[in-house]
Amino acid sequence: MLITRMSLPRRTFLRGFGATLALPFLDAMVPALSAATAKSPMRLGFFYTANGVTMAHWRPKVVGTQFEISPILSSLEPFRDQLVVISGLANTAADVRDVSSGPHTRCQAAWLSGAAAKRTEGADIQLGKTIDQYAADVLGQETPLSSLELALEPNFVVGNCDNGYSCVYQNTFSWKSDTTPLPMENNPRVVFERLFGDGSSTAARLKQMRQDRSILDSVTDDMRRLLGVLGAEDRNTAEEYFTAVRDVESRIRRAEQHVTATPEATIDRPLGIPFADDEHASIMIDLHFLAYQADVTRVVTFQVSREQSQRTYPFIGVPNGHHEISHHMDQPPRMALNSKINTYHVSLMARLAQRLSETPDGDGSLLDHTMLMYGAGMGDGAATRVTNTSPSHGVTSRSASVGRRIHDSRARSRSRRGVPRHRARPF
């Protein structure tokens, strides 16, 4: 890190008409002669996958540091020295109590809350504050957004979704309080505007953003002045960031133009969501990355799939609905198809980890200052079990300790099989 006499405030923004653009961490934000002691902020991300996983293809066969990466986790091989795989977990809050139905709702609701969802179809929903929001109370004190909630599937389903449980419990796994679920957004355009809008009315921001020009064009003067005073390394960092922002914005615009050009195929398809599912996922991962890089938020929850979802994945060779194939009945062909979906979902977090690892941040990379956790509330969907099977793993920095510390000094596969039920933990 270069020590200079110039110091920019950490919360420096470029401003233009209808837009505010946060900046990534730059050396120039470190006061002169104090660069060596400056610390980058910690970041936290939770990825949730629905309908359980094929446990036979998830769980490493060896417990300890010499474990072999399982097929489903193969995309995380580059990060194995920062990887912790935990199996044999139980979450007693998801256990059957007064009713034997609704396992999908019970397991997702309990995943980060450790609480049992109140069985109701009405507005009197009740659960518990989730771990991400406890973290946001601390990590979100200095960022424009205390947290960001993302999803790849629609979250506006209402009514009864799972044997007497409100759909709200499946729409999100992030809760601000016992009675306040936080909606998860799956429209890239809306997410982009949350990250880079100027806080004016929604209508004004939509009008501005849909003009045929980039958000960067509206902050050209500020951007030119900034680049003129930065050092060479900071200029490269800023230019790479601006390029990434422009790329994501261009992809969103192309998706919207495609929607406009083919209206007969866009019924029930929200504006701004690409037709290609993987392109949609790729844009959402890039937005997640930009939220961290620009320090707009340090806490993100990401619902990769929705409980009981029947989404198909033909682009990876799975024409079957996700929920249907998760009940694989231990039949090898069906297990293989379900594992393809599981493997693809894990690869999305691996994409984010790769980008974070390639991006400088303070005395290391963004990944060095981030903890990512991936898991499911349910174990193997074939049995619809919610206890003693729930899978989880984390990709962390060596110093990550937000919330309950799960990271060792070495890569490790852990098993908690045989742990008494009263000692089970949320993850």
Global outline: globular
Q: Which strand-content bin applies to the residues?
A: 5-15%
CA(first)-CA(last) distance: 37 Å
Task: Give the helix level as a range of percent.
Answer: 25-40%
**Unreliable runs, pLDDT <50, ≥5 residues?**
1-5, 32-37, 198-202, 261-271, 397-410, 417-427
Strand tally: 13
- Total of helices: 11
Task: Round the Cα radius of gyration to an integer and report it.
Answer: 22 Å
Give structural notes.
The chain is an alpha/beta fold and 427 residues long. It is built from 11 helices and 13 strands. The chain has helices spanning 55-58, 103-111, 131-139, 168-171, 188-196, 202-209, 220-229, 232-261, 277-293, 322-326, 332-357, and strands at residues 13-16, 19-22, 43-48, 83-89, 148-151, 175-177, 180-181, 299-303, 360-361, 364-365, 370-375, 390-396, 412-415. A 7-stranded mixed sheet has the order 5-8-3-11-12-4-13, with helices on both faces. A two-stranded antiparallel sheet has the order 1-2. Strand 1 and strand 2 (19-22) form a beta hairpin. Helix 5 packs parallel to helix 9 (277-293). The protein is globular, with a radius of gyration of 22 Å.
